[in-house]
Specification:
6-stranded mixed β-sheet; alpha+beta
Length: 167
Amino acid sequence: MIEYSREVNQLNDNGGEIRICEADPGMLRNLSELFHQYRLFYGYADEQPQREAALDFIRERLERRDSVLLAAVVEDELAGFVQLYPVFSSLSMKRSWILNDLYVDRRWRGRGTARQLLHEAERHARSTGAAYIQLSTAPDNMAARRLYESEGYEQDTEFLTYELRLR
């Protein structure tokens, strides 16, 4: 089980407050809707079965606590989330984290919400003694790439990544 026990209040780029906290079951509906929007961004269908699958998937993550799901709350509204999955690095012999999902609702973009979520993900990774955070994004997602690079993330030039699809 993964533990996270910190809540952070920070100012966004417009001087408003962003509260970063661990997602909880009370956020399930809103969080699953944001997760569905995130998947739409990557080309998945906007159909009721997909919405229900998103709800089930997020519910399972919250119940099993097999990921760290951090939520950004702005003006009492769920504005975005980041989801981290634990892995281990055999070479460094330390825990590492895969930042698998980062999404901010369109209404809250451009206010520093994604950056604050990244900062809290980094803080969490450091607090667990992690060797690194790894993430992937679409090559044409220039806004995300600029954000990641501005926060010190670098493209991996040491290793090639392969994937075996098991569908």
